[in-house]
Each structure stands twice: as C-alpha cells, then as structure tokens.
Amino acid sequence: MGVRGLHGFVASSCPHVCTVVNFKELAERHRSQHPGGTPAVVVDAMCCLRYWYTPESWVCGGQWREYYSSLREFVRAFTAVGIKLVFFFDGMVEQSKRDEWVKRRLKNNREIAKIFHYIKSHREQPGRNMFFIPSGLAIFTRFALKALGQETLCSLQEADYEVASYGFQNNCLGILGEDTDYLIYDTCPYFSISELSLDSLDTVMLCRERLCESLGLSLADLPLLACLLGNDVVPEGMFESFRYQCLASCASVRENRDRKGSAIAAVADHISQVLRLHQGEKTLEEMLPLGPNKALFYKGVASYLLPGQKSPWFIQKPKDVVTLDNQLLSMSSDPEPKQEVPMCMDPESKQKLPVGTDPEFNLETPMCTNTEVKQEDPVNMGPEAKHQVTMVSDPELLKVARAQHVQAESYLVYSVMSSGEVECSNSLEDATDQALPSQAFVYRPVRQRVYSLLLGGSGGGSSTGPAVKEWFVYAGNPLRQPDLVRPLQMNIPGGAPSLRQLWLSHEPGAQAQRWDTLLACFDLSSSREELQAVERPFQALCCLLVYLFVQVDTLCLEDLHAFIAQALCLQGKPTVELADLQLDHIDPRAVQLATLLVRGLTTLVLVNSACGSPWDMADFMPWHLFDGKLFHQKYLQSEKGYTAEVLVEQNRSHVTRFHTLKSVVCKACGKESRPIVSRRHWRPHHAGSRQYEPDQWRRY
Its Gene Ontology biological processes (predicted)? Predict the structure, then answer.
C-alpha cells in the first residue's frame, strides 16, 4: 500500500526520518500545550489487523476469544496513559483503486493456494511467514472495538484520506498505521504500528519534514512525488520511462543507492531543480509527459489534498477552477459533504445509468436530462466526489443507512443502497476442493433477497430491481468485471414489509416483522416456531446451520456434531485454555468448513442490519459462538466417531442442549427434504461428488 518503494527508501537511504518516540511522553506534552484537551490518536485499523492478531493459530478459522483479549489489552495500554483512540475502517473501494484491489486479491489467491498445499503436505499449520488473516477479521474487529467502548468509524471513501483528514482537523497527537501515504499527506505526525511496543508504548515516528530535507522538497511537493513514483491511484508503470530519464540525467544520485532508491532521489531532484523553475507558470501537462493519463494524474495528486488545502502545482484560474476536456475541476479540497442523487434513466437503453459520465475521468456526475448545465466535479477535492448516484431515492432511508455505515453498525447495506456495488475479499478456501462450494456462492441467495429488500423489489412478482455489482473472490473468478446479481423474491407470510416499516416503525408488532423478514432472507420461514424456541446465542447459530446444510449437500452428520459441540463447549471456557489447546493435525476440509461458518456470521451481520436489527449483534459475534482450534478438535473427534457425551466433554447440561439443537437443525432440514446422514451411511458416489462450477452460478 502507499507510495511504491518509499518505505524501503526511507529505511535504507534516510534512516534519520525515523525517530523513536514514547506515546506516554507525547501525551503529557500535548496536555501541557493544550490544557483541558484529551490527546487523541487516530488509528488506521486496516493497517493494524496483522499486529493485533497475536494468537498462534490462524488457519483454523480464527481464535476469536484470544483476539478479543488482544484488542482489549491494546485499548487498555493507551487508556492507561490518557490517550483517546479513534479507529477508522475502509468502508468501500473507490473506482480509481479497483485495479489495485483486484491485483491484491489475485495475489492473495496464490498465497492461499500455497497454504493449502502446505497443509496437505505436512498436516500442520504453516509458519508465520505464510500468515493470512482469518476470514471476516476486519468486519468483526469493528464490533469488538465498539463493544470495548471505542469510537469506531467506517469510511465513505478510502480510509487513509479520512484518517488523515480527521487527524488534521482535530489536532490529533498523530496517526497510527502502516502506509507510506501518511508520509505524503500534510497532516499530524505518523507513527508505525509495526514498531509499536505495547509494554513501553515506544514506537517509531516517520517525519515528513525530515524526508523533505533529504530530498530537497517542500511538503507541497510530496503529492507530486508520490504520483510520479506510483501509488494506489497512479499505476507504478505509468511513469517508468520518465523515472529512467530522470535517473539518466542525474548522475549525482546514482551513487551509493539501490536502483529504486536512486530513482526516487532522481525524481525528487527533477522536481526541485527543473519543475520548480516553472511552478505557477506552466501546467503539469506542459511540464510532464502525462499524455492520455492527464486526468488520472491530476486526481492522484489532488487525492492528497485535505479539506482547505491547495496545491501550488495547480495553476489557479478564475473561480479557482481549471478546465480539462470540458470538465470543470476544482483544484482545492472542499470539505463539504457529497450530495446523493438518485439514479437517472437513459431514455434509449432504459438502463439505470449514471448520466454525464466522462470515460477519461471515470467520474459519475449525474446531470439527468439537463445536459446544458455543467456541474463542478471535484476530481481532486480528495478521493470523494461531491455528487454520488444512488440506487435508492428515499432520502430518509439513505440518511439512516449512511449514519449506520459511518458508525460501523452495519455491513454492506449502505454500499448496496448508495452505489449498488459490493465486494468481499479473500477467504481461506481450497480452490481444488470441488466438494465444498465457495462461500460466495453459498450465501449468494441470501444476499439476493437482501438486495430485493433494500432496493424495493421485495413485493410481488418475479425478481425485480436493478442488479448489484458483486466483486466477490472465488476460485476461477479473474475479477476482470463484477458479477451482476439480480435481487431474489422473498416469501414472507402476510407479505413483505417496506424498508421504512423495518427501520423506522415503533409499532408493537415491528420486532416480530423484522424477525420474520430475517428468516425469509434465509428462506427459513417454515421453521419459525422451532427456531424461535432456541435460546440465545444459539438461535443465530441454528439458523445459520440449517441454511448451510440445506445449501451444501456434501455436509454430513459428523460436521453438524462438530459445529454444535464446539459452540456449547466454548461457553464459559477460559481464554487461556483455548490458547493452550493442541491439535493432532490440521485437516484442510475442516479449515474450509470453518471459513463457511465464519463467512455465514458476516452474512448474518448484513441480514440483521438490513432487517432493522431483530437480533443484538452480540448474538452472532464469533467470540461467543466459534473458536477455530476448538472446532478443529471437535471435527477430528467427530470424524473418529466419538459420542455426543465425549464431544461435549461429559458436561450433562451440554449433552441435553446438544441433542436439542441437533433436533432443531435436523427437523428444519427435513422440511426442506434434506436429511442429514452420517458419512458412513453415504453411498460411495455421494461423498465429494458434488461439483460446484463457477459458471453454473453466473447466470445473471
């Protein structure tokens, strides 16, 4: 992430940019300089997930109790010295960064393939050098931090921009993360999460002023440098020949540096010695070989401008705008929030399209049918555009969805309603195991019913409403384009309620309506009474297991036993006991089953949010329902034919609950003509024979 090659350059060529600091001392200094104020650190949470995930086991689906304890200790360390933490999570992927997102997902696929190859070869978890964060970690970390009383926010654009803006506007002590973009933003100090010692609260501060001194640049030059080197907006290869020319013409920087370090110094030298001579007189396209990439480059430079900031590299014309290819572009950062505009209809194609889109700028500027009026399109007010096309026209519902999104209280709902585009990153899935489908396919029907609910197509008739663009990672998906997924009709006794009823109603029967809608999303209305009788927190687990077993016919009774036994044994089990648990070996099928369950829990977050929260989110947080190693242990025991008594560790109350929960799941599956049988009773052709080819699911 961040600026290509900058991290290595700083470490090897400019070590004085890095200074060891202590958060306790910084906080004391801040309080003396700002009496009555509370020192705050804004945290880029996505950069910190690897640091926070300290449990030894990571391949079995996640050690969620241990992870929750790790987060609690992190928060306590800062709270103890009077520092307030504000956490930011990525809320959506910007279109300009989609290619980079895809590139990383495909790279992750290759890493996951190596992990499964290792497991099959060695029957154990790979070393930490192959570490891959457990599925759903980012989503559940939001809720864990909120449960710990922390201010947790979800971005409406790329999180690094909002992190930098928050730190800049709120006089924060600094930013804690691991992204060289924070060396480019002109904001509060940047601290490294990877260098943080939680015991002492020492870390490394990376000083952008010292970086500028080393390179002979000013702070205002850094965005230009970042884009010429390549970042998440401007591809690294776009200016490769330009960097080579800079290097060839600047012999003084070629000595005592590696090639990439020399290139960085050479580009910086060209900015300070050549470009600055014409600053304010010539436009960037007159000084640099921008060619057809002009708009993208301007957007990249301007993406670093925080609210109220301007770049001296943009020539300011009347009204502070310049004209590029008939588009009016603001060349300063505008702190005003964006305006959400409903989708306009193309009169010829009858497709819902963002009208006024300029392909060069990749901007969605809704102008409806009034083509005479040019709207200001702030390509560089930061990554976020002022005007956004939305899929839903009800402003009150959009306002509610947006607020829940920003407060990290929902998952995907606002993305569906605002842009009609969602994504899901990699999961630990074995691409060679054709007996178990990808979680992307298993839970797609649920998502389709949610789309129907959110986009107003849930009442009557066949599948209605616009298609949603899904960027979901699964085996065989090259991610060249999104899957276009149509909403799916829901069957709800008495008819489907409106979204306003589910979200805004305070009538006595509203909660029951929300519960019925949630069951309908999983197509489980016929088992309402049985599921309603199940005690919390196992009610959510049973809903998920019934759905999972109906959808995946290669799951057997032994799998069900393992899922139920681990959930029961988890209750009341100390975290230290879970950490000390040792496994005989690692089974690749159990790894993928764990992924299916955890991704099911994230799907429950989506459904519960969309239905107006009939359940408390705590009811299906993994630290209450799932532990990776414990599940793996129960899976291995169940495969050996262990009895229910042994699986639940001879706990009498657990034995009773085990049979009750098993009965509920089996009865509900029976209503769907899906008997759950032991693997030993399967016919020879049944086991592992189900082929899940991607194409059969991509009918949309």
Answer: fat cell differentiation; peroxisome proliferator activated receptor signaling pathway
The label of the residue with tokens 């129907």 reads 452
Q: Are 401 and 412 in contact (CB under 8 A)?
A: no
Work out the mean pLDDT of the chain and round it to a whole number: 85
- What Cα–Cα distance (Å) separates residue 361 from each residue in 142, 293, 300, 335, 481? 33, 9, 11, 21, 19
Helix then strand count (H, E) for the chain reads 30, 16
Nearest Cα neighbor of 23 from 79, 71, 69, 70 is 79
Helix (H, G, I), strand (E, B) or coil at 594: helix
CA-based nearest residue to 45, from 135, 186, 185, 143: 143
Q: Which tokens is 326 given?
A: 């008939």
- Our CA angle for 660, 661, 663, nearest 5°, is 65
Contact status, residue 135 vs residue 270, Cβ threshold 8 Å: no
Q: Which of 586, 590, 677, 666 is nearest to 635 (CA)?
A: 590
Q: Are 416 and 455 in contact (CB under 8 A)?
A: yes
Q: Would you say 171 and 34 are in contact if contact means Cβ atoms under 8 Å apart? A: yes
153-157, 206-210, 384-388, 603-607: range with lowest mean pLDDT? 384-388
Name residue 352's beta-bridge partners. 345
Over residues 195-230, the pLDDT tens digits come to: 999 999 999 999 999 999 999 999 999 999 999 999
Q: Where are the alpha helices (DSSP H) in 80-150?
A: 98-122, 137-147
What is the DSSP secondary structure assignment for residue 264, as one 8-state letter? H
pTM of the model: 0.86
> Could you write out the DSSP letters of every residue in 621-639?
-HHHH--HHHHHHHHHHHH
In this model, does residue 594 exceed pLDDT 90? yes
Which helix (H) or strand (E) segment holds residue 513: the answer is helix 510-521
104 Rama class: left (phi>0) / alpha (psi -120 to 50) / beta: alpha
Percent of the chain's residues with pLDDT above 70: 84
Residue 572 binned pLDDT confidence (cut-offs 50, 70, 90): confident
Cα 263 to Cα 267: distance, rounded to the nearest angstrom: 6
In the predicted model, is pLDDT for residue 549 greater than 90?
yes
pLDDT at 692 over 70: no
Reported as a single tens digit per residue, the pLDDT across 34-64 is: 998 999 999 999 999 999 999 999 999 999 9
Indicate the residue type of 436.
L
- What lies within 8 Å, CB to CB, of 43 at 6+ separation is 85, 86, 87, 88, 163, 175, 176, 177
For residue 291, which amino acid is it?
G
**Tens digits of residue pLDDT in 289-335:** 888 889 999 999 999 999 999 999 987 543 333 433 333 344 455 44
Residue 677 contacts residue 460 (beta carbons within 8 Å): no
Closest CA to 142 of 52, 39, 57, 58: 52
> Would the pLDDT of 528 be above 70?
yes
Cα(15)–Cα(11) distance, rounded to whole angstroms?
A: 5
For residues 341 and 390, the answer to whether their CB atoms sit within 8 Å is: yes
- Report the C-alpha gap between 657 and 128 in whole angstroms: 37
Q: Scanning the structure block, which residue is given the tokens 């809720």?
A: 143
